[in-house]
Amino acid sequence: MTEAPETTVQLETVAEATNRLLDTIRGLDDDVTVPSLLPGWTRGHLLAHIARNADSLVNLLLWARTGIETPQYASMFIRDADIEAGAPRPLAEQLADNEAAANRWLALAQTTPEQAWTATVRTRQGRPIPAADVIWMRLQEVEIHHVDLAAGYQPGDWPMDFVARLLPRAAADLTERFADEADPAAAFEVRTVDTGFATTVGSGSPDHTISGPASALLAWLLGRSEGAELSGALPTLPAWK
Question: pTM for the full model?
Answer without folding.
Answer: 0.94
